[in-house]
Amino acid sequence: MDQCRAKLESTSLVKLYGEFTGTSNRKGRCAVILTEKDLVVQRLTSAPVGRNKVVLSLKDCVGCRAYRGNDSADKAAYLVAYFYPLKRRWMSSKVSRQRVEQGFRLASLQDPQANLEEAEKWARAVRERSARQQFPRNGVLMSQMSRPCQMMLLVNPQSGKGQALTLYNNHIQRMLNEAGIKHTLVITERQNHAREMVKEADLSQWDALVIMSGDGLLYEVINGLLERPDWEEAIRTPLGILPGGSGNALAASIHHYSGASPVTSEELLVSCGFLLCKGLVSHMDMVSIHLCSSPRLFSFLSLAWGFVADVDIESEKYRHFGAVRFTIGTLVRLASLRVYKGRLAYLPATKDHNSEEALRSNTMLCKDRVPPVTLPAVRDSSFHNSCHSNNSLKVRRVESTPSRSATKALPGPHDSLLPPLDQPLPDDWVVVPEEDFVLMLAMYQSHLAEDLLAAPEATPDDGVIHLFYVRAGISPTALLRLFLAMEKGAHLTTNCQHLVYTKVRALRLEPYSPKGIITVDGEVVEYGPVQAEVHRGLSRLITG
Ligand code: ADP
Ligand code: MG
């Protein structure tokens, strides 16, 4: 046994060592070692060491607790740790998070209280070390949510196939308990219920607002927060999302930002649940949206017109198929491809602007911000040049001073880049020369749907709108090819002459046809002229 201990201890820096039995099999003894990074369990048998050793990374641990058994005559205490390591599925090349529970019985001491204290010491040490195993990713510093924390978990029972509550019962409730996260379940009763509730809520009670639905429910919550008189503080409440709908684009984006390989459905839910339990918070951009006669809106995901908006809304009738509804809708629309006429203009994102903006938001918004990743200014110069002469004809210089800009004295950030919707645009805007489109899609997160990586370069707080449009003239087959390539985020490398991609800070779209569909975060909004401006890192998102 000493030999075994010596061998284990020599492998890495041991923090704790103990010899326990399993929870069900009291005869099977094991040596347990806690290092800075791993929990190592070595079964003590005469078989060769390698076969009986399990190494669990603390990065995959969501929680650990100690408790006494139900039998008061039992002097033992119990220790249980919960892990969600990435594992290859049986007969599949796919990797997803799968639950592993490690339980131990500690009974070496005569005093039951002393056994419990020993188990608690272990539980604390495991929790502290797994919390320390979080590193900033891609230069984004994330702060960890305070523990114990109190979450409001909003569930839309109608979202997706109507299974959000079942999914909560089957996966999420247990996971949050394992992580020691207290939560209050709020089941929405109707559309806009969540929006009204967060508008009035006492936010000091909540460490986070978590949505279990599709993107539509988060859209409600964000707009409710930004309608409050204390919007500036309210929008800094950490927000979380668990995929329970049919359009789970933000959940898929968060999973993608974590660096894991793509998954869908319940595997995506387990991944997002795991990341939520990890509780790391990053900044998220918000985009303000101006429409002709509706009040200003806020958007965290997308603004769409043409093919994508039509598919999103027309596929509502296939809702009971879940996320597959978009595939069905795409095929139906491809069969009767339409051309959408309108005028599109945008303010390009530049490298300089992004560094300036970052400095400003560092000092103004929050203390915990780190210098952001600088963006390459991607602009198709030939395209830009070709439309420049048009610009000078069409666009008059307008100073976007606060008094003349479109923001009224309403809650929410000031839009410094947008003149009122009926006024001409400043001359540093680019007007797209085409007027015939198949789609216009503005994205600020990576995914458009669970399996559509529309903006592969997007990060939650890059401060840019990733603008795509497809010119009319594309064949249905070529468009289908684009969407198929988008599953892997490869559509930008297909060399499709009809697809244009550029990074912008603001845009304006004026559709010409009197009827049509415009969506914001997958929700229908007033059809007609629309303009948008990005506000870098305005909100907080739990990304894990
Ligand atoms: P999905 O991805 O399945 O579309 P969403 O979260 O986008 O799921 O929700 C769809 C719509 O349902 C949104 O417009 C949302 O505002 C609305 N909604 C929220 N709660 C309810 C409810 N209890 N009953 C009906 N609709 C609701
Ligand atoms: Mg939706």
From TrEMBL:
<keyword id="KW-0547">Nucleotide-binding</keyword>
<keyword id="KW-0067">ATP-binding</keyword>
<keyword id="KW-0808">Transferase</keyword>
<dbReference type="GO" id="GO:0016020">
    <property type="term" value="C:membrane"/>
</dbReference>
<feature type="domain" description="DAGKc">
    <location>
        <begin position="146"/>
        <end position="293"/>
    </location>
</feature>
<keyword id="KW-0472">Membrane</keyword>
<dbReference type="GO" id="GO:0005737">
    <property type="term" value="C:cytoplasm"/>
</dbReference>
<dbReference type="GO" id="GO:0043066">
    <property type="term" value="P:negative regulation of apoptotic process"/>
</dbReference>
<protein>
    <recommendedName>
        <fullName>sphingosine kinase</fullName>
        <ecNumber>2.7.1.91</ecNumber>
    </recommendedName>
</protein>
<keyword id="KW-0418">Kinase</keyword>
<dbReference type="InterPro" id="IPR016064">
    <property type="entry name" value="NAD/diacylglycerol_kinase_sf"/>
</dbReference>
<dbReference type="GO" id="GO:0046512">
    <property type="term" value="P:sphingosine biosynthetic process"/>
</dbReference>
<dbReference type="GO" id="GO:0008481">
    <property type="term" value="F:sphingosine kinase activity"/>
</dbReference>
<dbReference type="GO" id="GO:0071363">
    <property type="term" value="P:cellular response to growth factor stimulus"/>
</dbReference>
<dbReference type="InterPro" id="IPR017438">
    <property type="entry name" value="ATP-NAD_kinase_N"/>
</dbReference>
<dbReference type="GO" id="GO:0005524">
    <property type="term" value="F:ATP binding"/>
</dbReference>
<dbReference type="InterPro" id="IPR001206">
    <property type="entry name" value="Diacylglycerol_kinase_cat_dom"/>
</dbReference>
<dbReference type="GO" id="GO:0012505">
    <property type="term" value="C:endomembrane system"/>
</dbReference>
<dbReference type="InterPro" id="IPR050187">
    <property type="entry name" value="Lipid_Phosphate_FormReg"/>
</dbReference>
<feature type="region of interest" description="Disordered">
    <location>
        <begin position="395"/>
        <end position="420"/>
    </location>
</feature>
<dbReference type="Pfam" id="PF00781">
    <property type="entry name" value="DAGK_cat"/>
</dbReference>
